[in-house]
Amino acid sequence: MWWLKAVAISLSVCAVLGGRDFPPEFIFGAASAAYQVEGAWNVNDKSLSIWDYFAHTYPEKIIDRSTGDVACDSYYKWKTDIELASKMGLHFYRFSISWPRLLPSGFPNYISEDGKRYYNNIINTLLEKRIQPVVTLYHFDLPQSLQDLGGWTNPLIADWFANYARVAFSLFGDRVKIWITLNEPISFCDIAYNVGTQAPGYISPGVGNYICNKNTMLAHAKAYRVYDKEFRSKQNGKVSLSNQFFWLEPDTKSDEQAAENARQLMVGMYSHPIFSKQGGWPPVIERIIAEKSKEEGFPYSRLPAFTEEEIELVKGTYDFMGFNFYTSRTVRNAKPGEEIGAWPFEGGPDINIILGVRGEWNNTDAWWLYITPDGIRKLLGWLKKEYGDIEFLITENGCASSSPDVDDEVRVQYYKEHLEQVLVSINEDKVRVTGYTAWTLMDNYEWTDGYSIKFGLHYVDFNDPNRTRTPRASAEYYASVVKSHSLDVNNKIIDEL
C-alpha cells in the first residue's frame, strides 16, 4: 500500500521516541456526535434542537444548504456503526446523547422512552462487542425550547444542564464509566456569539460569548458535583469536559507575551477555573478585559466575575482533562490601527493580537485546518506545565478533505504524524496521556460545512438512501495501530489488510 512507504520512512523519526509501542493501558477510539450522525430529527417525541432550527431557518449559512435531518441515518443504522468500530478493534466509541431526544421538553419532567431505548441499545451493544462507551452529554444540540429562554446566556442553564446530567447518570451510569459533560464550549460560545456560524447564530461579540463562557463553567461544575455526590460511590466513573485547543505560538520572539495571552484566552478561559489550584478566570485575561471594558464606557467588565462561592464550586471538577486538537496558529501583536479579525480564527480584539499560519504548514480542504503535528506535543507540554501532572484524554483529532476517495493518503499521514508526537509526549516529556480518539468514525454532517467536508475513517455515500459506509485506507491504518498497540505496523498486520 502507498502508506507503507510513509510508515517505513517514519521509522528513523520514531527511533528517538523511546519506543514505538503505546503503554499497555493506553486506549484508542473514534468519535461521533448526535446531530452529525443520527438524523431522525422529528421521529417519535424528539423535540427541535437549535441545530434543527438553525439549519432549517438559515440555509444560506450552510455551504451546501444541507441539514442534519437524515445525516448518516444512525438512528436506524446504529448497529452498522458499532460493527465498524468492532471491526477496527476500537477500545471505545465516543458518542453524544441528544438532549432533546432524551428530554423533549428540556427538563426532566418528561423522559422519552424512545430516547432511553435508543441509547440503551447503543450502550448495551457496544459492551457486548467489548467496546467501552464514552458518552458526551452536550455536543451543540440544545433543545430549542431552552434557547427560546436564552440558552447558554441564561444563568439558569447551569441548573437545567445539571438536572439533565442527573437523568443521564441515573439511566446509563451503571454501564458508562467515562463521561464528557460539554464538547467544545469555544464553538458554541466564542464561535457562535463572535461570528454567528454556530447555532444559535446570534452575534454578540465580547458580551454574549463571555456570558456563555461563565455559564458553561458553572454547568459543567454542577453536573460534576451531581455525579460526585449522587453516583460516584456506586458507579465509579470519570467525568470531565472537552474543548478544542489550537497550539498558539509566537510569530517572532517579540510576540511571546502575545502568544501567552492568546493561550490564556483560548485554553485558560475553559481550564483555569477547573484545573488550576487558584480557580477563577486567568488573571491576565480578567485584568485585560476589565481594563478594556472600562475604556469602552462599560460600568463593569464584559467578562462576568465569579463569586468566591462559584470559584470553589468550579475548581477541581475533573477526573482527567479531555481536549480536541486539530491545528495551530501563530500569534503576533496587532499594529496600531490594524483591523483585528474575529476570535478564535483570525485574531483577538480584546487582547490586541493577530492569528496567522506559517508558510511551511500544509493546509487541508477545511480552510481553518493546517497540518501541524508538533503542535499537539507542544500543547501537551504547556498543559502539563500550566496545570500539573494530570491525566489527559485526547477526545478528537482528525483531518479534513473534500474528496470521497477511500485512498486517503493525507489523512493516514496526518494520523501517523500526530500519533508519533503523542508518543514523544508520553515517552520523552512524561505527559500522562491515556487515550486517543480519531475524529471521526465516518463522514457526517460537518456543521456549516454541511457534507462538503469529510473527516471520516469511513466514507459515507450521502447520495445513497442506504447511506452506505466504506472503509478508507485511514481506517485500515488506524485499525492496524489499534490492534498492534504500536506504530510499528509489521508485515503480518499489513498482509492482513
Automatic annotation (TrEMBL):
Residues 1-18 form the signal peptide. It comes from the Eukaryota. One of its GO terms (biological process) is carbohydrate metabolic process. PROSITE patterns: GLYCOSYL_HYDROL_F1_2. Pfam families: Glyco_hydro_1 (PF00232). Keywords: Glycoprotein, Glycosidase, Hydrolase, Signal. GO terms for molecular function: beta-glucosidase activity. Homodimer. PANTHER family: GLYCOSYL HYDROLASE, LP05116P. Belongs to the glycosyl hydrolase 1 family. This is Myrosinase 1-like. The lineage of its organism: Eukaryota, Metazoa, Ecdysozoa, Arthropoda, Hexapoda.
